[in-house]
């Protein structure tokens, strides 16, 4: 989690001019090892919104959770792992809450029935406040983000004849001298005495003030997207996520079908043009997937794609994930589980189950190398490959002890033959990667989230095992060797496939087959969970083999190929000998006995001399048919994919030339 800089404590609103006094919060920010929890019961959504942003700003390391109708299976397992120091219940709860949560009486503080009183108690002194209407929803949501970013208390107008009930006392007790009203709150505050009132006309004005507030602490890296009127009410948690991640809040229309337009517009705006991460706080009904023509010939004429994915062959530019569940209480748990996963002790543990039904030799070739790569990076790998090496009983017993699980094979084997939906054992906070056709669906993913998973990765479409296996290998390599989070690793893997599609076209021309399969995989593999999630940091073993490396010095990029490759992986008719840190895809040559997969070198590079108005062009002694380079101008990041020749053993050097962009 990002910490606010000292500069961020000196806050102000664009509409108010510069305000120089820092905000005093209720207590010091907790240490990163904090195990304090605020658990919210039944409260009105406007109060939930206010409580969420005020707690996130005042006590950013305190877990903010919602009570569930299924506490024994949802809340208790998390508390068993977290072992909270304190739990503060806020709102209304059924009788016997302590017993329901499975914690000692001494851990649970007295219940605070009034969420407004609790939230404002976090700010004993405050010179400023934000006042928001209960509706329309966009005004409330953007006002909440503004208050959270500015680290000032938020007051939401009360229901009934006195919308300002209690506000005068709250302001006077804290010495508030300035109040910013948003939209429909303006009229109610006309007669507010003793404070200077500044009006923001609507949600758009509040969003602009929020972004200016964020920019005081640096560029805006993250976007949060929500539908303000979604039926599942996930939008009530969107401002809390935005404050936790120092993100700008984007809102769709009522049907959510304009999500792609909203995101693309944000990436063209000055304040948010450099955003790197997109967190969607909505299910696929509130912000639906879009239908596109299937780029790979097959059973389906159309496929389902997240609306912010480019419609062309352009690179994937955002690191993205969705937070949602039919039980809204699981949404904040996903962020809390992600934190526990990253802080887990010992090497990350993964169970890989590949090709258990047999018949997918290319996929198994990839999977075995994924296991090798993770083990070389310091992960503890349990690999089960092929039909004879895995039973449902073994998988069921092993799964709860893993930090990650990779399934590569037919989905129906996992669902029908192994009957995974019937399993109920709690899981560690973990990453579940289902590399199968049609594996990512809300109902079955919900069962994994119920059991404790932090994220589920897969595709809602059919996929070919080769392109899926190549993407999976690239994803886990990026996660393990480069230390990227899940969202960045997925973007890295998607762009690897798009580069590979270009390389195939270069080498094979019209004879290139299955290029559409690579595009389909790049378009449709998705993270449901926190894209910023990281696995525990591994420690490479003493006998680890050196991995492929990339170095950028001024205008020279060098790929250093390891001296040694892994021993051959043979799953007839395929054979592979890859470098540690390398890549594999479906490019192979054929001899009399096997299909030899070509080892590939792939690197994501940031070029220090990048500047607006210029595009890098690379040159090298390697023949052009053996490499491709793609440039993401918005992020100023490039991707190099090469097929090294025998004479290229050791290093491949590229020179960077900067060409002025041609005016359009």
From TrEMBL:
The keyword Signal applies. This is Cell wall binding repeat 2 family protein:: Peptidase_C25. Keywords: Signal. Residues 1-20 form the signal peptide.
């Amino acid at each position: 989690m990002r910490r606010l800089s000292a500069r961020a404590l000196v806050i102000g609103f664009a509409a108010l001019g510069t305000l120089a006094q820092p905000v005093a919060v209720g207590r010091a920010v907790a240490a990163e090892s904090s195990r304090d929890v605020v658990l919210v019961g039944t409260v009105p959504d406007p109060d939930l919104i206010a409580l969420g942003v005020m707690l996130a700003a005042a006590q950013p390391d305190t877990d903010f959770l919602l009570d569930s109708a299924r506490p024994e299976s949802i809340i208790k397992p998390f508390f068993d792992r977290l072992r909270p120091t304190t739990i503060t219940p806020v709102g209304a709860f059924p009788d016997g809450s302590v017993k329901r949560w499975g914690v000692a009486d001494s851990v649970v503080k007295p219940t605070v029935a009034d969420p407004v009183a609790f939230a404002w108690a976090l700010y004993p002194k405050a010179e400023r406040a934000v006042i928001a209407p209960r509706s329309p929803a966009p005004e409330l949501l953007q006002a909440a983000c503004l208050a959270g970013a500015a680290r000032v208390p938020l007051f939401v107008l009360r229901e009934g004849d006195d919308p300002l009930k209690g506000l005068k006392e709250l302001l006077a007790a804290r010495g508030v001298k300035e109040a910013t009203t948003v939209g429909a709150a303006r009229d109610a505050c006309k007669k507010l005495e003793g404070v200077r009132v500044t009006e923001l006309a609507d949600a758009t004005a509040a969003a602009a003030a929020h972004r200016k507030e964020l920019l005081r602490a640096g560029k805006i890296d993250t976007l949060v997207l929500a539908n303000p009127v979604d039926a599942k009410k996930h939008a009530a948690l969107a401002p809390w996520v935005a404050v936790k991640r120092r993100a700008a809040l984007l809102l769709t229309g009522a049907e959510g079908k304009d999500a792609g337009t909203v995101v693309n517009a944000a990436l063209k705006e000055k304040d948010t043009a450099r955003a790197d991460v997109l967190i969607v706080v909505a299910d696929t009904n509130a912000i639906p997937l879009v239908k596109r023509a299937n780029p790979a010939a097959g059973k389906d004429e159309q496929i389902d794609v997240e609306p912010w994915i480019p419609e062309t062959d352009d690179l994937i530019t955002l690191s993205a994930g969705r937070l949602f569940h039919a039980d809204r209480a699981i949404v904040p748990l996903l962020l809390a589980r992600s934190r526990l996963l990253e802080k887990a002790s010992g090497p990350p543990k993964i169970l890989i189950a590949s090709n258990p039904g047999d018949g997918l030799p290319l996929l198994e070739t990839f999977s075995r190398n994924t296991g090798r790569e993770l083990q070389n990076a310091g992960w503890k790998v349990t690999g089960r490959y092929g039909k004879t090496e895995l039973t449902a009983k073994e998988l069921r017993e092993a799964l709860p002890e893993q930090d990650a699980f990779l399934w590569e094979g037919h989905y129906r084997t996992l669902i029908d033959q192994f009957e995974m939906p019937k399993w109920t054992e709690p899981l560690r906070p973990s990453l579940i990667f289902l590399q199968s056709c049609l594996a990512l669906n809300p109902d079955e993913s919900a069962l994994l989230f119920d059991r404790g998973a932090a994220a589920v990765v897969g595709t809602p479409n059919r996929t070919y095992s080769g392109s899926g296996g190549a993407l999976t290998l690239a994803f886990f390599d990026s996660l393990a060797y480069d230390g990227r989070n899940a969202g960045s690793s997925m973007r890295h893997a998607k762009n690897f496939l798009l580069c590979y599609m270009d390389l195939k076209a270069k080498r094979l021309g019209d004879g290139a087959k299955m290029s559409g399969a690579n595009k389909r995989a790049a378009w449709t593999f998705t993270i449901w969970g926190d894209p910023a999630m990281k696995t525990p940091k591994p420690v490479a073993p003493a006998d680890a083999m050196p991995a492929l490396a990339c170095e950028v010095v001024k205008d020279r990029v060098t790929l250093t190929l390891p001296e040694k490759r892994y021993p051959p992986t043979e799953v007839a008719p395929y054979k592979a000998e890859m470098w540690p840190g390398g890549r594999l895809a479906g490019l192979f040559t054929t001899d009399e006995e096997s299909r030899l997969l070509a080892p590939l070198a792939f690197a994501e590079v940031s070029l220090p001399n990048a500047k607006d108005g210029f595009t890098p062009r690379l040159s090298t002694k390697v023949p052009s048919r053996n490499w491709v380079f793609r440039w993401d101008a918005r992020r100023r990041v490039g991707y190099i994919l090469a097929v090294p020749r025998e004479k290229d053993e050791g290093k491949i050097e590229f020179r960077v030339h900067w060409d002025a962009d041609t005016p359009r």
